[in-house]
Amino acid sequence: MAANILIVEDEESILELIAINLHQSGFNPMRALNAEYADKLIQEAIPDLIILDWMLPGMNGIEFAKRLRSNSSTKKIPIIMLTAKSDEENKIVGLESGADDYLTKPFSPRELVARIKAVLRRKSPELIDDPIKISNLHLDPSTHRVESNGATIKIGPTEFKLLHFFMKNPDRVFSRNHILDKVWGNQSEIDDRTVDVHIKRLRDVLTNNGHDKLVQTVRGMGYRFSENQEN
Ligand code: CA
Predict the structure, then answer these.
(1) What's residue 87's pLDDT?
(2) Nearest by Cα to 103 from 130, 84, 77, 88
(3) Each residue of 1-47: pLDDT tens digit?
(4) What is the pLDDT, as a whole number, of residue 1?
(5) For 216, which of 1, 55, 206, 225 is 20 to 30 Å away at the CA?
(6) What was the pLDDT predicted at 208?
(7) What is the per-residue pLDDT for 182?
(8) CATH at residue 196
(9) CATH number for the domain that contains residue 80
(10) What is the pLDDT of residues 161-175, one digit of tens each?
(11) Structural domain of residue 33, as residue ranges?
(12) What strand order describes the sheet that includes 28-32?
C-alpha cells in the first residue's frame, strides 16, 4: 500500500516538484500551500508522513509542527521539516518542535525520498517496500517490475503479489491457507487449489532463467521460496 505523504509548501514549483518525485517513488502525495489547508486535509485523513516547510504564510511550520505534536490524533505523524535556513541553531529549534528530520533547501528530490524512506522505515516499516533481489531475480514493488537476469518479466498481478510475498519471506515454508490469507486476504470464496494454480503460473513465468526452481513444493506442508534445493 502506498504511503500517503502530505506536502505543506507555499512555493508551488517546489510543491509540484516534490509531489512528482514522490509519485514516481511509489508514494501517494497530497498537496497543501499553507498550514490551514493542511489542517483540513489531516482532519479528513491522517497522512503517513508530513513534509513541512518552515517558512509559510499564516501559521509557520514550527508552530504547525508543535500543534500537531500537542494533539493526540496527530502527534505520532512523522514530520520532515524543510527550510532555507541552514545554521545549527535553527536545526535545533526545528527538531525541538517535533520534527523527525530536517532538510535544508536547496535539496535534491532523491535526498528527500531517501530521508522519507529512512523515517518511515523507523516509524512504520510496513509502509516501506524496498526492492528485493534474490538469485538474480529482482522485484521492485514501487514500479511493479520483475527482472530475471536483467530482463523484464511479464507477470500477472496475482503472481506479482505471490512472488513479492515469497521474496519478502525467503526460506520459510507456508501452508496454502497461510498463502491465501497473506496474498488474497480474507476472500472466503477462494479455495486452496487457487494457490496451486497461481504457483504453477508463477513457475511458468520464471522458467526462462531457471528461477522456477526457487518456488519449491514442500510435501504435506505447502510451499517455500528458497535458493537452497533441499527437500
Ligand atoms: Ca516557504
Answers:
(1) 66
(2) 84
(3) 678 999 999 999 999 999 999 999 889 999 999 999 999 999 999 99
(4) 60
(5) 1
(6) 87
(7) 85
(8) 1.10.10.10
(9) 3.40.50.2300
(10) 999 999 989 999 999
(11) 4-126
(12) 28-32, 4-8, 49-53, 79-83, 101-104
Amino acid at 73: S
In a domain, 19, yes or no: yes
Task: Note the helical H segments in 144-229.
Answer: 157-168, 176-179, 192-206
CA 205 to ligand 1 centroid distance, Å? 49
| Domain count of the fold of the chain | 2
Low-confidence ranges of the chain (pLDDT < 50): none
What's the gap in Å between 105 CA and the centre of ligand 1? 10
Claim to verify: residue 75 and residue 32 sit in the same structural domain: yes
Rounded distance from Cα 131 to ligand 1 centre (Å) = 33
Going from the Cα of 65 to the center of ligand 1, the distance in angstroms, rounded, reads: 15
- 158 in a structural domain: yes
Residue 231, domain member (yes or no): no
Considering the domain architecture, whether residues 84 and 160 belong to the same structural domain is answered as no
| 127 alpha carbon – ligand 1 mean position (Å) | 28
Q: Are residues 24 and 114 in the same domain?
A: yes
DSSP string, 111-141: HHHHHHHHHHHHH-GGG----EEETTEEEET
Give distance in angstroms: CA of 33 to centre of ligand 1: 9
- For ligand 1, a single-atom ion, the residues with CB < 5 A are 10, 53, 55
Residue 10 alpha carbon to ligand 1 centre in Å:
5
- Verify that 102 and 120 share a domain, yes or no: yes
* Ligand 1 centroid – CA 15 distance (Å): 10
What is the C-alpha to C-alpha distance for residues 106 and 26, in angstroms, rounded to an integer?
23
